[in-house]
Write a structure and sequence with these properties.
It is a single chain. By secondary structure, the protein is of the alpha+beta class. It has four domains: about 5-95 and about 110-255, no CATH class; about 270-355, no CATH class; about 365-490, no CATH class; about 510-585, no CATH class. Helices cover about 20% and strands about 25% of the residues. It contains ten helices and 25 strands. Strands 1, 2, 3, 4, 5, 6, 7, 8, 9, 10, 11 and 14 form a twelve-stranded mixed beta sheet that branches. Strand 4 (about 75-80) and strand 5 form a beta hairpin. Helix 6 packs across helix 10. The two termini are about 45 Å apart. Mean pLDDT is about 85; it is low at about 1-10, about 560-575 and about 575-585.
């Protein structure tokens, strides 16, 4: 990870390169004087296609139209550098086949802008020189006069405010709750701040990730009912909704699209959806005679890429193109995947590798930084089961392919060692004991960072918070999951556990109905909390064991106290939530 502090190093490295390539002269005897500012960005670093995702990372409790974890749809974008603005534009047709080529047949309309940041300067970095003789001097400066702005190599961007209030991350709130989004300036001067702009670079030195945090005001609008104007916040069923403008935090995550990315998409028609459902990414299609039509619509299945390489390559390294299965037949099970062409609006498909010849890849998820330690075992158990699902998927594909080709001992395809660990859970930050797929030790995964999928615990309360939320960021052209998040909202879980505890107490006669009606039990709980504030004693393992042993789950698990599940650790999360709730009584 390269942070805002490292962007200063980018400028220093360029200066060293300039020194190394400068002709001999006075600079050999005089040390260079560096007068280049910080946060220097090379324009060429923004070339190519990128993914873009917005995520709400901060929201106050009193609003009902935004919560931590809300996300936009994933976009493919290109950067457009103008004199005053760095514009983020969608890089593809929103409706397939709808954008023409103009009267001359050559024009192409620019796609919709979805974000924009101010460019404060364009400049070259070079030594000062004598304007009469041209002799270079030993002072290195930002030169913004010798060449037109569009030919200068570097620029400086003001990341403090997104000038386009796209608000896609709040799209549902804007439809149902009637709110407006207004961007505000948010300057982060401390490079060590988690909200500071961050830039990461690949091994070849090219920039492949940009992370920016912005702030925005969210305010309710008005609605007309029977001739009167009413604030939309008054229509919320909560009695304590804050109608004042509220400030939220948004992470803007940009990840470079790998130009040679290898993923086999799956187009999933409506009749197949009726038999077995997937989450899908839909993309409408346009017909020049009938407009937007259903047969031109594509529904791409949202799924992780299980394979390091799915398509066979020619000598130049490009996918081997085809029009029929016969062109791909290699005696191993290769077929012509027409979805490859459909996703790219191309007539030809591409030849696949047989499943038995493909190398599986490991998909890592990261615990959030605030994830409770007492639920880590539960999280690991969940991922063990999901890993089993991934393993069974790969094994079934290989076995079925083997059987269809008349192979022998096809059941052995399920036991191959290369496909027994396909989904892993990583600490945050990453520790030495983590799987290699988790990355370098010390790697930190933050909410909304496109590079990392997250299993997160949200400790902050929120009126709009659900119990759980699992947004996925899927490639809009193929459906491949680039980033996925599974969030558990802690305060909602605690409230539900308390509610269940009180119900059991009433049924057992331990809590009088009069206390419930008067709120007496809540008052006592608050008083105890106030008296012990700052003096709480952590529960030991023996304490937890004693309380857990007193919890009888037999009535909801068919008579068995251990839950009757295949694994003995399937219920520690339920027990842990109950233990925390009982400990407060």
């Amino acid at each position: 990870m390269v942070t805002a502090r490292s962007v200063r190093w980018l400028g220093s490295s360029l200066l060293l390169a300039l020194l190394a390539t400068s002709p001999p002269g006075c600079a050999e005897t005089q040390p260079p004087i560096q007068r280049v500012g910080n946060e220097v960005l090379e324009k060429s670093a923004f070339e190519g296609e990128w993914y873009y995702l917005q995520t709400v990372i901060d929201a106050p409790y009193g609003i009902a139209w935004a919560t931590v974890g809300d996300q936009s749809l994933l976009e493919r974008i290109e950067w457009e550098i103008q004199e005053r603005y760095l514009i983020v534009r969608r890089s593809y047709e929103f409706v397939r086949g709808s954008e023409g080529t103009g009267i001359a047949g050559t024009a192409s309309e620019p796609h919709a802008p979805i974000a924009m940041f101010e460019i404060t300067s364009h400049f070259d970095i070079r030594r000062t020189y004598n304007t009469v003789t041209g002799e270079e001097e030993n002072v290195i400066v930002e030169n913004d006069t010798d060449r037109p702005w569009n030919l200068r190599r570097f620029m400086r961007v003001d990341w403090s405010r997104n000038l386009i209030s796209d608000g896609d991350a709040l799209s549902y709130a804007r439809i149902f709750d009637g709110v407006e989004l207004e961007p505000i300036a948010y300057h982060v001067n401390d490079p060590a701040s988690p909200d500071a702009p961050r830039f990461a670079f690949a091994e070849d030195g090219s920039m492949n990730y940009v992370d920016v945090v912005s702030r925005a005001f969210v305010r309710p609008t008005e609605i007309e009912i029977d001739g009167y104007r009413w604030p939309t916040c008054w229509l919320e069923y909560h009695s304590h909704v804050d109608c004042a403008p509220s400030e939220i935090g948004l992470r803007h995550s940009f990840l470079r699209v790998e130009p040679d990315a290898d993923y086999q998409p799956m187009d999933y028609s409506g009749d197949r959806m009726e038999r077995f459902g997937y989450f899908v990414t839909e993309r409408a299609g346009y017909d020049p005679e009938y407009g937007a039509v259903e047969p031109a619509r594509r529904r791409w299945v949202n799924r992780h890429n299980l394979w390091t390489e799915s398509y066979r390559r020619d000598e130049a390294g490009a996918p081997l193109r085809c029009s029929s299965d016969a062109e791909c037949d290699d005696g191993r099970g290769s077929i012509c995947d027409r979805n490859y062409g459909l996703a790219r609006l191309e007539p030809q498909g591409a030849c696949t590798h047989a499943y038995r010849d493909r190398a599986p890849q490991v998909t890592p998820y990261y615990l959030s930084e605030a994830f409770p330690a007492d639920l880590a075992t539960t999280a690991e158990a969940v991922f063990e089961e999901w890993n089993d699902t991934f393993v069974q998927t790969v094994g079934s594909l290989r076995e079925a392919e083997c059987q269809s080709r008349g192979g022998g001992d096809c059941a052995a395809e399920r036991a191959r060692e290369d496909a027994q660990t396909l989904l892993v859970l990583c600490h945050n930050p990453v520790v030495e004991e983590d799987h290699d797929a988790c990355g370098e030790v010390g790697t930190v995964a933050r909410l909304g960072d496109l590079r990392y999928s997250l299993l997160g615990w949200v400790p902050e309360p929120g009126l709009a918070s659900p119990l759980g939320f699992g947004p996925s960021a899927a490639d809009p052209l193929t459906g491949e999951l680039i980033h996925a998040t599974t969030l558990v909202y802690g305060t909602g879980v605690e409230e539900l556990a308390s509610y269940g505890r009180d119900l059991v107490a009433i049924l057992n006669g331990d809590l009088p109905e009069s206390d419930i009606m008067s709120g007496e039990h809540v008052r006592r709980w608050v008083e105890r909390n106030e008296r012990t504030r700052g003096r709480a004693r952590p529960m030991t393992g023996a304490d937890l064991g004693r309380v857990e042993a007193s919890i009888d789950l037999s009535r909801i698990t068919g008579g068995r106290r251990d839950g009757g599940s295949r694994r003995s650790h399937d219920l520690p999360g339920l027990r842990a939530a109950a233990v925390r709730s009982l400990a407060r009584r």
